[in-house]
Amino acid sequence: MRLTHVTLVIEDLERSVAFYESVLGAVVQRRTTHAELRLGDCRLALCTRQVLDAFVGVPMPPPDGKTVGGVVSIALVSEVELNQIIDRAKGCGGRVLKHPFTPEWGGRSAWIGDPDGHWVEFTVRK
After folding, report:
1. Burial of 74 (0-12, 13-18, 19+ CB in 10 A)
2. What is the pTM of this model?
3. Which among 10, 30, 34, 45 would be 20 to 30 A from 60, CA to CA?
4. Reduced to 3 DSSP states, what percent helix, strand and coil does the chain have, rounded to the nearest 5?
5. pLDDT tens profile 19-76
6. Is pLDDT above 90 for 94?
7. Which residues, 6+ apart, have CB-to-CB distance to 89 below 8 Å?
8. Please, are residues 125 and 6 in contact by the beta-carbon 8 Å criterion?
9. Which residues, 6 or more positions from 7, have their beta carbon under 8 angstroms from its beta carbon?
């Protein structure tokens, strides 16, 4: 398994894209309702809470002043591995936010919430 990208929950897409392009030299790879920027071998995704809520289909808890919003996305080798991880997460206090599905870019994806409420996306790229 490997970390493929990090998603930051942001308020203003244009402002955030400009910031990461300027500060880190990030290059925009995709821009729709969210933005994906290339940072070396990793991607930084910028997404508003509203867009992320609509994509996952479960509202993200509002900020409580103690935590910063974000999502970790982890690439897997196979759909079998994806299903095993979802089963293990459920057994370890995780919550399935979105069962495995086929996203617009292909492959398979599923979302879980860890025991602290952090969102983790697991993907199998094809």
Report:
1. middle
2. 0.64
3. 30
4. 25, 40, 35
5. 888 877 889 999 999 999 998 788 889 898 899 899 889 888 777 766 656 677 878 8
6. no
7. 95, 96, 112, 114
8. no
9. 44, 45, 46, 47, 52, 70, 71, 72, 73, 121
